[in-house]
User: Fold this.
Amino acid sequence: MKAYRMGIDTHQEPVVYMRKDCAVCRAEGYTANTRLQIKAGECTLIATLNTVAEEILPRGSIGFSDSAWEFLDLKPGTPVLVHHAPEVHSLSALRKKIYGNSLNTLEISGIIHDIGRRLYSDIEIAGFLTACAGGRLSSAETIALTTAMVNNGNRLHWPEYERIFDKHCIGGLPGNRTTPIVVAIASAAGLIIPKTSSRAITSPAGTADTMEVLTNVDLPLLHLRNVITRTGACLAAGGEVGLSPTDDLLIRIERALNLDSEGQLVASVLSKKIAAGSTHILIDMPIGPTAKVRDREQAERLAALFQSVARGLGVTVRCVMTDGSEAIGWGIGPAEEARDVLSVLRNARDAPSDLTERALYLASQLLGMARDISDRQALQEAREILASGRAWQQFRKICEAQGGLKQIPTAGHHIELRSQRHGRLRSMDNRRLAHLAKVAGAPSSPEAGLRLRVKVGEMIHEHQPLATLYAETPGELAYAREYFHQNRDLFDVAVEELPVRE
Assistant:
């Protein structure tokens, strides 16, 4: 059959399309949702079949989704061979896990290898993720999963350096964009820190989303290595360089399921760090009632899993527990968080103090891992690097090496979200605050999001702005505003009598 590009974006799921009256379909018994093996030259792909009306496709053609077309590197009219999909042997291990049994190293390696070869459908990937959620991955299984994910991609090696550093935040705290600041401070101090990040999974912005507002983050492997050689650091997206690429396939399904299980989280984080060549890794765990990690007990359990897996893989991990009770900084969403990052690095007067202090603390933890100095000395060194402008100079150097520092875009539409009462702001719901920024369009629209105007503990007056809501289109703005009107209690304002003037 001849290849035909349908122009349909199915994200990363490979899909092919055949006419309902196709002679091949009838002869082979293919129906919608059949798994097919497609061969084009030396390339092979397993794809899911969708059938279409006769007028959609030329006779004798087979249509391809964008991801399938690009994976096979097709050209219009390229001849392809179509077969029934061969048996995927690792699916027996998947079924074993679904029924609650533990998997050995070979079984987990087989599953990850086959997912990386695009042999699994999205439904089968979702089955694997679900079967591993809820604490159903043991420490040994998580070690095996991490190792398999590292082995199914590129890996950076830095023989000229004894120690390579990295930092990761568990997430769940809007506006907590410390990583660019921490990387700038740590690398200005001489640490080698090749920071690659995933895009947002369940949040309105990830480090890669925010950095993409400021510079190029999709760096080929050679370019990334050159950036690190020149500056001692990078702030890039991990997808382009192929570090633990199977993790990106899993993240795509995790995002759809809004699922982020502990074992998968640990494997995802450590596989990316180890593939980047990191030997010393700092993990930030914000704890709060509406953060991803709800209480100290959960944080200690997760930290123990990180430590256990790290020991099994021969790397050093330090987990620190931080306050996750309220959003950090003023901005939520890629562009607004980028504004906060630059204001901190530039030592601006209006820089958010909570973001500044948190970044300094985390940077000092990395310095403490690198040097035999006290926490106080490490914090003092980090503060001096930031205050002197060395961190800002280093950040600009990294951005220039990655393609140059860009202007932050501004949203075309905005509205003030105001309080309906006076009183004291008692709390804010991190999850619903993040969702508000997402329904406004973040992170798909970098300009979308929120700019907070108040912090927990402040006195609020009736009609006072609580936040400014930004969106790219009027429709998205209206949709997000309606969500806020239905969830006004995400800002918990406790009524207090205002003092009476005599």
Remarks:
- The chain has a mean pLDDT of 93.
- The longest strand covers residues 43-52.
- The longest helix spans residues 296-313.
- DSSP finds 18 helices and 18 strands in the chain.
